[in-house]
Amino acid sequence: MSTDGARIPRVLSIAGTDPTGGAGMQADLKAIAAHDGYGMGVVTALVAQNTHGVRSVHVPDVGFLREQLDAVSDDVVVDAVKIGMLGTAEVVRTVTDWLREHRPPVVVVDPVMVATSGDRLLDEDASRAMVTLLGLADLVTPNRAELAVLAELAARHGRRPDGPTAPHGRRPDGAEDRALAIARAWDVLVLAKGGHDDGDTSDDVLVGPAGVLRTFTAPRVRTANTHGTGCSLSSAIATLAARDGDWELAIGTAKHWLTAALRGADALHVGSGNGPVDHGALVRAAMPGPAWTDRWWDDVAEVLRDTIACDFLTGMRAGTLDPEVFAAYLAQDVHYLRAYERHLALLSSWTSGAEAAFWQAAARGCADEARDLHHRRLAGTHADDPVHPVCAGYLAHLQAAADSGSVGVLAAAVLPCFRVYAWVGTQIGTVPADHPFADWIGAYGDPGFAEASAEATTWVERLAAAAAPAERGAMTRAFRASTAWELAFFRMPTAGAGGGSDVGDVVTG
Q: Measuring CA to CA, which of 148, 151, 163, 429 is 20 to 30 A from 362?
C-alpha cells in the first residue's frame, strides 16, 4: 500500500445513490471529507430510497458507467477507491475491467449484497461476477449476512481453503471462520463487522489469510439511526489507509469516528425511519463553535473602513475639525443617548442576574455621559437643535428592534454603539493633553469603555448562540443596520444641510 505522497488523499467512490444523504455515494463523500480526503464519485445506480427503505433502482447503461470511470482516471490520480453498490453482473464486470487497468494503491470493497432486512441486493449472476472483483481488493467489509454469502460463494467456486480455519477462541457465530475462508480464498483482508451483534460492545474483527489480526472494540451505541454505517465506515477506512499507510491504524481511527457519528445520530432528526449517522460529529467537536459576533464584525468590515476614513473622524484625529461642527454632532448625540438609555434599561428589564445588572449599569452610564461630558462641551449652546433626520432614522431603527419583543434582536441592535466607538478609540489612539478633542478621544479609548464593550459582546454572543436560526438572522440584520447607522451618524455633521442623503446607500436591512 502506497500513495504518491499527496497530503490529501484523492478517494473515488463507486456506488449507488441515496437522495436522503445517509447511505451510498452521499455517505461516502461525507465520510471522505470528514477525514480530510478529496472525494470523487462514479454512479453505478440511481436509487430512490429514504430512511424507510428502497423504492426503486435505476441502473444506467454500463457504457456510461465506463465513461464516468475513464473520465476520472484519464485526468486524476486516484489514491484509493471504495466500491459499494454494483447491482448487476454487467456493472460488476465493467468496474472489474476498469480496476484491472487503473488499480489504485488502496481498494476497499463494501459488498452491498444483503440489506439489513435480509433482502438480497445482488442477483446470482452479479454474485458470480464478484469472484474476479474480490481478487483485486485489499480489504472487504461485509456485514454478517454478506459474510455468509461470500463464504458460500468461495465454496461454490472451488475456493474453499484447506486446513484449519479460525484459531482457538473463535466467535460462536462462525463469523471469524467465514472471514478466514474469504481472506484465504481471495488473499484479502476481511473486516467482520459486529454492529448487528448483541452485547455492550461492538467488535469488528480484522482477519487475514493467516488468521485473526486484531479485534477493534468500541462501546455499543443504542440507536435506531444506523442507515449507511457500512458505506460510511468503508469510505473512512479507504481514506485513512491512503493517508496513513497502515490498515490497522486506519480501521481503529475509522471505528472511533463511526462511534461518535452514531452517538450524534439521534440529534440529526433526518427522516422518520432508520436515520443516518452524524458524519460531522467528530469534526464539529474539534472545531471551535461559531463566534456569531465575530462573524457579524467581519461582515461589516467595509462599513468600518468607511467609518474610520470619514471626514468627521479624520478631522477629529488631526485636530482640524470645526468646533461648531463638533458641537452640532454632540447635540444629536444627546438626543441619541437619551433614547439609547431607555433601550438599555428595557434590556435590563427583559433579562435577569448579571446580564440585567450590566444593561442597567450601561443605561446609567448613558445618562451620566449625556449630563456631564456633553453638557460641559456644549455649555448651553445647541440646546434647541431639533433631531436630525439621520439621528431620527437611527432611533427609529432601535425602536423597531425594541418593538420586535426579542431581547436578542434589541441587544444586537445596541451592540454597535459599544463596539464601533471602542474600535474607533483603538484606531485613533492617544493624543496630547492639549489636543482640542483630547477629552472626547479619551472617552472613546477609555479602558473601562473597552471592558464594557467586551462584556456587551459576550452577552449578545450568548443570546445569538441560544437563538433559533430565524431570530439569529434577525439579530444579524439588526447589528448590520446599526453599524451602518453609526457610519451615517459620523457622516451627518459634515454632510451639509440635507444631512441624510447617503443614509439609504449605507443602511441595508
A: 429
Is residue 231 flagged as an active site residue?
Answer: yes
Which candidate in 20, 44, 88, 226 is catalytic? 226
Residue with cell 461630558: 373
According to DSSP, the β-strands at 139-140 and 106-109 are: parallel
One-letter amino acid at 309 equals: A
* Rounded (5°) CA angle 220-31-59: 110
Active site residue 158: no
Is 228 one of the annotated active-site residues of the chain?
A: yes
Catalytic residue among 39, 82, 87, 231: 231
Active-site residue, selected from the candidate residues 3, 44, 88, 229: 229
> With 0-12 CB in 10 A as exposed, 13-18 as middle and 19+ as buried, what is 261?
buried
255 among known catalytic residues: no
Please name the residue that has the C-alpha cell 443516518: 276
The residue from 228, 252, 393, 499 that is catalytic is: 228
DSSP state for residue 387 in the 8-state scheme: P
Catalytic residue among 30, 82, 193, 255: 193
- Rg value, the chain, Cα: 33
Which residue's entry shows cell 437563538?
A: 467
Q: Active-site residue 30, yes or no? A: no
Q: Return the H-helix or E-strand segment holding 216.
A: strand 211-219
Which listed residue (230, 252, 445, 499) is catalytic? Answer: 230
3-state DSSP percent of the chain in helix, strand and coil, to 5: 55, 10, 30
Number of neighbouring beta carbons within 10 Å of residue 267: 10
Distance CA 69, CA 78 (A): 11
DSSP state of 1: -
DSSP string, 30-49: HHHHHTT-EEEEEEEEEEEE
